[in-house]
Write a structure and sequence with these properties.
Elements lengths: L6 E12 L2 E12 L3 E5 L6 H8 L6 E6 L6 E4 L13 H7 L12 H13 L15 H14 L4 E5 L7 H14 L4 E5 L3 H7 L2 E5 L3 E5 L1 H4 L2 H8 L1 H12 L1
Helix pairs in contact: 3-4, 8-9
C-alpha cells in the first residue's frame, strides 16, 4: 500500500451498533486532504453509517479527527432530508442557507449573485424558479449539491450521488467531480466500482470493517474486491480487466 498522505479526516477505531447488531467494527481509515476519496462496499456494509458518524448524527465509539479541527462541511445525502413538497422554489430553498434575515424580506444582491453562480456550476440555472416538488430525482440532487457548494466547504461529502439520476445526470456528475479536483477535499460513498475507479484518488473498502485502503491501482485487485464484496465480484473484476 502507498504511504499515508496528509489527512483531512481520520477515523480512529470507530464503531457503532444498531440494537445488538454491530454495524461498524473498529474502523480506522483516513481521508486525504485536497483529494477525492471513495468509500466502496456491498449493501449493508456501513458506508452511509460511517458518514453519519463523521457528521455527528449518531453515537459511536472511537474518534473522528479533522484537519482543520472545525472544517466547513457540505453534505449531499443519498435521499432528500427535507419535505420536497414545501411551497418553495429551488432558488428560495437555496436562499434559506444564506439568508441572514427572514426570506420574505428578500435577498441581498450578493446572495442572489452567489446563488445564480452556484446554480450555473451544477448546470441548474433553469431550475431556479421551479417548485421543489416538481423536480426529478436528478434535478433534486443538483439542487442539493448547489446547497452544499454554497457553504464554500473545506470538505464535500456525497452519499451515493448517482442514485436516481439519468444518463445526463451521470455525465454531469463526472464532469463536476473532475472540476472539483484540487478545489477541496471530497468524500464520496458509491456502490459503483467504475465511478470509484474513474474519480477516486483514494479508496476505502468497507464491509463493517476496513478491508483495505489506498490508491486505486493498489485497491482494484481481484483479491481485495473479493474480500470486500465476495468471491464473485473479485472474479468479475478480474475477467473485465483481461478483456
Amino acid at each position: 500500500m502507498s504511504e499515508s498522505p496528509p489527512a483531512a479526516v481520520k477515523f480512529q477505531e470507530v464503531g457503532t451498533t444498531l440494537g445488538e447488531y454491530e454495524v461498524l467494527r473498529a474502523v480506522t481509515a483516513l481521508v486525504p486532504k485536497g483529494r477525492q476519496t471513495v468509500i466502496i462496499g456491498p449493501n449493508g456494509a456501513g458506508k452511509s453509517t460511517l458518514i453519519h458518524c463523521l457528521l455527528g448524527q449518531i453515537p459511536y465509539l472511537g474518534r473522528v479527527v479533522f484537519d482543520p479541527p472545525k472544517p466547513k462541511v457540505g453534505y449531499v445525502p443519498q435521499r432528500p432530508d427535507f419535505d420536497r413538497f414545501l411551497p418553495l422554489s429551488a432558488r428560495e430553498f437555496l436562499a434559506l442557507s444564506l439568508a441572514r434575515r427572514p426570506i420574505w424580506l428578500g435577498l441581498a444582491k450578493g446572495a442572489r449573485t452567489k446563488i445564480k453562480a452556484t446554480l450555473a456550476k451544477v448546470a441548474a440555472e433553469d431550475l431556479a424558479g421551479k417548485p421543489l416538488g416538481s423536480l426529478s430525482g436528478g434535478e433534486t440532487q443538483r439542487i442539493l449539491l448547489a446547497a452544499a457548494l454554497l457553504k464554500e466547504p473545506d470538505l464535500l461529502i456525497l452519499d451515493e450521488p448517482a442514485t436516481g439520476v439519468d444518463v445526463y445526470g451521470e455525465r454531469l456528475l463526472c464532469e463536476l467531480l473532475e472540476g472539483f479536483k484540487d478545489s477541496f477535499t471530497v468524500l464520496m460513498v458509491s456502490h459503483d466500482l467504475a465511478t470509484a475507479k474513474a474519480h477516486g484518488d483514494w479508496v476505502i473498502c468497507l464491509n463493517r470493517r476496513v478491508v483495505a485502503e489506498g490508491e486505486p491501482e493498489a485497491i482494484f485487485r481481484p483479491e481485495i474486491l473479493a474480500a470486500t464484496f465476495g468471491l464473485h465480484q473479485g472474479l468479475l473484476f478480474n475477467s473485465a480487466a483481461k478483456d
